[in-house]
Write a structure and sequence with these properties.
One of its GO terms (biological process) is protein catabolic process. This protein has 2 domains: 12-70, Leucyl/phenylalanyl-tRNA-protein transferase, N-terminal domain (Alpha-Beta Plaits, 2-Layer Sandwich); 74-250, Aminopeptidase (3-Layer(aba) Sandwich), CATH 3.40.630.70. It is α+β, with helices and mostly antiparallel strands. It has a 7-stranded mixed β-sheet, sandwiched between helices. The protein has a 4-stranded mixed β-sheet with strand order 1-2-4-3, covered by helices on one side. It contains 8 helices and 11 strands.
Length: 256
């Protein structure tokens, strides 16, 4: 009789415990590649410690907190991002008509709640459980999490929230109630990061949607080295200026 394969050990964290080295995360042959640990808490110090090491929480209702460090890592190289031609035209038109406004942090709670509850194709439920919502609201109040909001005709129609440590931005989730609204928010974030000399936006996991926007895979070892250099740097002032659109909307090399 054959025995079931033995799962690799998964560290259990008590509040205040340090994270294991990211190299100990489950590998590609394991049931959940990138899974590093379980347990712990979602308070501000723990989340800051996690993100500074390239670790993020991701779990569903009924599960303990699960901590991940994926390899490779999906990232956006901000200066390599090129707008699709149709999105460029949409943004130009909305700006010329005076209908589009990008705001930072004016409605963080609404953005994260929308990300948690907006229906997503092929998904039942959400990983942004109530405890995660409250944790990131506290992280926002501590100045470490931010919302990028697409307002059209005075209505909040899309956006995203992210984590910022020094010169590193970690994208979390987006929502959209109007065509292209979440993409506009992401491109606004890219424009802001360019203006602030922030080279990378972490997107955590490989998805076709992110690939279509210019996301690329980066080995975890390279990503970790970048974090060590970027996170100790001064954090930017989170304010969006319309001039930030200039280079992204005028440059050559657009995507079809």
């Amino acid at each position: 009789m054959s025995s079931s394969p033995t799962l690799p050990a998964l560290p259990w964290l008590e509040p205040g415990d340090v994270f294991p080295p990211v190299e100990q995360a489950w590998g590609p042959a394991d049931p959940a590649p990138g899974l590093l640990a379980a347990g712990g808490v979602l308070d501000v110090p723990t989340l800051v410690a996690a993100y500074s090491q390239g670790i993020f929480p991701w779990y569903s209702a009924g599960q303990p907190i699960l901590w991940w460090s994926t390899d490779p890592r999906m990232v956006l190289h901000c200066h390599a991002v090129r707008l699709h031609r149709s999105l460029r035209k949409t943004i130009h038109k909305l700006l010329l008509q005076g209908r589009l406004e990008v705001r930072f942090d004016s409605a963080f709670d609404r953005v994260i709640q929308a990300c948690a509850h907006i229906p997503r194709e092929g998904q039942n439920g959400t990983w942004i459980v109530p405890a995660m919502v409250q944790a990131y609201i506290q992280l926002h109040r501590a100045g470490r999490a931010h919302s990028v909001e697409t307002w059209i005709d005075g209505e909040l129609v899309g956006g995203l929230y992210c984590v910022n440590l020094g010169a590193m931005v970690f994208g979390e989730s987006m929502f959209c109630r109007q065509s292209d609204a979440s993409k506009i928010a992401l491109m606004a974030l890219v424009s802001f990061c360019r203006a602030q000399d922030i080279p990378l936006i972490d997107c955590q996991q490989d998805t076709p949607h992110l690939s279509s926007l210019g996301g690329q895979l980066m080995p975890r070892e390279v990503f970790s080295r970048h974090l060590q250099q970027a996170t100790p740097q001064p954090a930017p002032v989170w304010r969006f200026e319309p001039v930030y659109w200039k280079h992204l909307l005028s440059e050559d090399g657009e995507r079809a």
